[in-house]
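Protein record

Derive C-alpha cells from sequence
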Amino acid sequence: MSKVVNISEAASLAIHSLAVVAFSETSLNAKTIASKLNVSLSHLSKMLQILAKNDFLESKRGPDGGFVLKKSADSITLLEVFEMAEGTIECRMCGIAAGLCPFAECVFGGIPEKVTQDLVAYMSSTKISDLKIK
C-alpha cells in the first residue's frame, strides 16, 4: 500500500521510546520498553543505542539498570528526534526534477509542501513532555 506521508519505523521508535522513558518514574530496560510499545526488542535495542549515543538517553548497567533521559523532556522537540533518526526533512514529493516540469503550476496543488511545512511546524513546537500516555 502506498503512503503519501510516511514516518519511518526508526523515527517512530525514537519518539515513542523517549516518551515512555520520560514518563516513567524509574529507569526502564529495553525489554520493558519494547513490551510497553508492542515492538521488536531487536529493532528497539538498536534505536535505544542510537538515542544514547546522541545524548538523549543515559544507559545504566546492572540489576537496577535501564534507560533514563539525559536531557529534560521539555527541552526535546519531536523534530530534533525525528531529524536525528532520519536526517533533515526535505519535501520532494514530485518525481519530476525541479525546474524541468512542463506544467505552469504543481499538478499536486502544492499540497505536499504544505503538509510537510505543517508537520515540521508541529514537530518543532511539540516537546516530548507534551505527549500523553494512556
The two ends are 29 Å apart (CA to CA).
